[in-house]
């Protein structure tokens, strides 16, 4: 069944919720239910056809000639992922449930939002040649499901958003994902304010070479009295890729938060994805845009597994399409992510950039495209191509490993943006 709805994460009292989905018109739902039998001349179904605009915008066919995400694990910190959906079967590892105890005994998770996001990242389709159903940006990547939010339809939602014991589930989820070997962490979630534990968890993840991607938020049309929309966390932390959403014309979607934390954007309107029980959804939000960018990060990490987070971030920013006038604005950041160009830029950085980390830094004969833990020194030979964000990213990574500076910066930001809102 195809369902249509916003299906994005919003702030609850302490953490997050999901906007309920509603069925589409009966005629459209009936048509979608039989999509597998409605093949077009190319052998694809209506679901895959509904993804065409996203596939073309990200230039995925070109990117897939180089990388499909094999060997990479993307942790989806969300409401849980259905591992049995036909478009995700065999790709999902069900990890910890940090919301355990919020729902009454015997009540299982709905796993709506999380399944949707996972399918956009690593859906592999089904049927002959995998040509039916949802294809994700990195169809050969693995998904680690880490449950850190409840849908607002779940009976434990109120308990989850009010009990102090659940306050730092996101921080715990980040650390767990890192320790389980995640290469990329997708956080299509957000909240109003940061915590000390979340800051520390993000520093830890970056120090281990993990790329973090988060939603900029869906309060872009909310009046703030200033020249920006609310900041949200974890997207607004330095070192995290904050993702805005674009509409069909690749302009900032009206709901997408606009502020100086936004790094890049991706399509976020009428995005086809999977739901539990072999359902399909069409939705909108920065959540969906975030999942698409996480998929692109997974393609880069598959091709260059040792590339450090600042260089992955630079590849995403330097290669973006539809750049705003002047090269950057607070709505779409450095532009709309392009998977094929991001891979090309990552290859250029891997060739022309030396990154020395840990003990290997003492050996000048060891060529590295990036590295895991340890102080990161980046030497860029091609100075003409250094973007504004390259410096920001490098500084953020250094700050992530030298916590004093980051904490000072974030304390000031939290004070300034106390009323910032969520995705």
From TrEMBL:
<dbReference type="InterPro" id="IPR050131">
    <property type="entry name" value="Peptidase_S8_subtilisin-like"/>
</dbReference>
<comment type="similarity">
    <text>Belongs to the peptidase S8 family.</text>
</comment>
<keyword id="KW-0645">Protease</keyword>
<feature type="active site" description="Charge relay system">
    <location>
        <position position="113"/>
    </location>
</feature>
<keyword id="KW-0812">Transmembrane</keyword>
<feature type="active site" description="Charge relay system">
    <location>
        <position position="78"/>
    </location>
</feature>
<feature type="signal peptide">
    <location>
        <begin position="1"/>
        <end position="29"/>
    </location>
</feature>
<keyword id="KW-0732">Signal</keyword>
<keyword id="KW-1133">Transmembrane helix</keyword>
<feature type="domain" description="Peptidase S8/S53">
    <location>
        <begin position="69"/>
        <end position="335"/>
    </location>
</feature>
<dbReference type="InterPro" id="IPR015500">
    <property type="entry name" value="Peptidase_S8_subtilisin-rel"/>
</dbReference>
<dbReference type="Pfam" id="PF00082">
    <property type="entry name" value="Peptidase_S8"/>
</dbReference>
<dbReference type="InterPro" id="IPR000209">
    <property type="entry name" value="Peptidase_S8/S53_dom"/>
</dbReference>
<keyword id="KW-0720">Serine protease</keyword>
<protein>
    <submittedName>
        <fullName>S8 family serine peptidase</fullName>
    </submittedName>
</protein>
<feature type="region of interest" description="Disordered">
    <location>
        <begin position="350"/>
        <end position="369"/>
    </location>
</feature>
<keyword id="KW-0378">Hydrolase</keyword>
<dbReference type="InterPro" id="IPR036852">
    <property type="entry name" value="Peptidase_S8/S53_dom_sf"/>
</dbReference>
<feature type="active site" description="Charge relay system">
    <location>
        <position position="287"/>
    </location>
</feature>
<keyword id="KW-0472">Membrane</keyword>
<dbReference type="InterPro" id="IPR023827">
    <property type="entry name" value="Peptidase_S8_Asp-AS"/>
</dbReference>
<feature type="transmembrane region" description="Helical">
    <location>
        <begin position="388"/>
        <end position="411"/>
    </location>
</feature>
């Amino acid at each position: 069944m195809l369902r249509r709805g916003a299906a994005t994460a919003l702030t609850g009292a302490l953490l997050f919720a999901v906007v309920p989905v509603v069925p589409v018109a009966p005629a459209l739902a009936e048509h979608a239910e039989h999509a597998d039998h409605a093949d077009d001349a190319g052998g694809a179904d209506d679901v895959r056809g509904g993804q065409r605009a996203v596939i073309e915008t990200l230039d995925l066919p070109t990117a897939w000639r180089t990388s499909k995400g094999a060997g990479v694990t993307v942790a989806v910190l969300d409401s849980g992922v259905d591992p049995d959906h036909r478009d995700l079967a065999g790709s999902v590892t069900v990890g910890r449930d940090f919301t355990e105890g919020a729902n009454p005994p015997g009540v299982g998770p709905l796993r709506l939002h999380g399944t949707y996001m996972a399918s956009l990242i690593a859906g592999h389709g089904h049927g002959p040649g995998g040509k039916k159903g949802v294809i994700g940006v990195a169809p050969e990547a693995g998904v680690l499901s880490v449950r850190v939010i409840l849908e607002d339809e779940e009976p434990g939602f109120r308990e989850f958003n009010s009990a102090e014991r659940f306050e730092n589930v996101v921080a715990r989820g980040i650390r767990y994902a890192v320790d389980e070997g995640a290469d990329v962490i997708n956080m299509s979630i957000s909240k109003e304010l940061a915590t000390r534990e979340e800051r520390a968890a993000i520093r830890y993840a970056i120090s281990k070479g993990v790329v973090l991607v988060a939603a900029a938020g869906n309060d872009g049309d909310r009046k703030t009295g200033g020249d920006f929309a609310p900041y949200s966390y974890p997207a607004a932390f330095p070192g995290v890729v904050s993702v805005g959403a674009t509409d069909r014309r690749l302009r900032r979607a009206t709901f997408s938060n606009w502020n100086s934390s936004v790094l890049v954007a991706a399509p976020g309107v009428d995005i086809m994805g999977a739901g539990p029980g072999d359902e399909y959804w069409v939705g909108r939000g920065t959540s969906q845009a975030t999942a698409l960018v996480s998929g692109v990060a997974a393609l880069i990490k598959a091709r260059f597994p040792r590339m450090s987070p600042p260089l992955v971030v630079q590849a995403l920013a330097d290669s973006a399409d539809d750049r705003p006038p002047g090269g950057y604005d607070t709505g779409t950041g450095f532009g709309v992510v392009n998977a094929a160009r991001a891979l090309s830029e990552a290859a250029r950085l891997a060739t022309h950039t030396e990154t020395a980390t840990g003990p290997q830094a003492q050996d000048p004969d060891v060529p590295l495209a990036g590295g895991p833990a340890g102080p990161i020194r980046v030497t860029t030979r091609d100075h003409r191509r250094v973007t504004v964000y390259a410096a920001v990213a490098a500084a953020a990574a250094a700050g992530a490993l030298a916590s004093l500076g980051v904490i000072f910066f974030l304390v000031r930001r939290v004070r300034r943006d106390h009323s910032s809102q969520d995705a």
